[in-house]
Amino acid sequence: MILKIGVIGTGMIGRDHTRRIQQVLAGAKVVALADYSVDAAKAVQADLAPDATVYETGQELIAANTVDAVLVCSTGATHEDYVLAAIEAGKPVFCEKPLATTAEGAKRIVDAEIAAGKRLVQVGFMRRYDTGYVALKDAVENHTGAPIMVHAAHRNPTVPEQYVTPMAIHDTFVHEIDVFRWLLDDDYVSARVTFPRTCAASHAKLRDPQIVTLTTAKGVVINTEIYVNCKYGYDIQCQIVGEDGVAYLPEPQAITMRLNAKRQNEILTDWKDRFVASYDVELQDFINAAAEGTASGPSSWDGYMAAVTCDACVAAQESDGSAVTITNPERPALYS
Ligand code: ISE
What we know:
By secondary structure, this protein is α/β, with parallel strands linked by helices. Helix content is 36%, strand content 23%.
């Protein structure tokens, strides 16, 4: 069976996922495209999916009976409505982060999926498919003993002018929020944010860098530096300190050169390059599950828990270094 996919949002990641489905992955093809700019959708159609139909709206694409499954890659504020419509239509849906821009919105999706009686939603937390994080999880579960502390860093060389302080949580740190829940098999109970002095490369609406401290239900303390004007590259660091040893996230493979009296290796600068292989594996996982009429991988419950934690972290940004309590709702049976 070839799964017929409709892609809503054909900008950066929507175009990239269309390329993947058309040229890299097995078992699916893109049959429909929609974007708020019809011209942008037509450009992707011309470049990558000449047989696809371009729809004026995402809702029309979801309703089309030629579409078996949906990819939501549009701007965050539109995600909730599209995901709810796909659930309503009984179609598996892959949604880029965030699942919704508020915890209440994410909860509405969880409730709709529970009412549908089966998993239909996969959230685009691709780090769970990264070979480095998968190896780190194995080390933590089988070698370094019960985790006690995590030290992490999420550094971007630069961000666009419209990137403001809360986005460091919703847009950037959200990946750590999800991946640490998964790595540690744990939930968060509090968040605290502290700000060193703001770097000179930042601007009035962005306090950068910042340090987020999460505490988990099992008592693990996670410190993450978020620094989105670090200039030198895209750098994701993580070490997990356990009872018996320390596990480090591997660096991406790079050739070491001895050159001009220096020992050096390249550091990536674009997050899409850093996780390119994980995007392939996550989307293949979606295709395989959707062909069976369901979804696997990061769930709408994970998207909801990430949204709850994001809200607490943003509240912590405004709390002068005090801790903000995170209350975890009961996990429904569908996500156990
Ligand atoms: C971007 O949306 C991502 O998902 C990247 O992983 C993150 O590093 C970046 O800060 C975000 O803007």
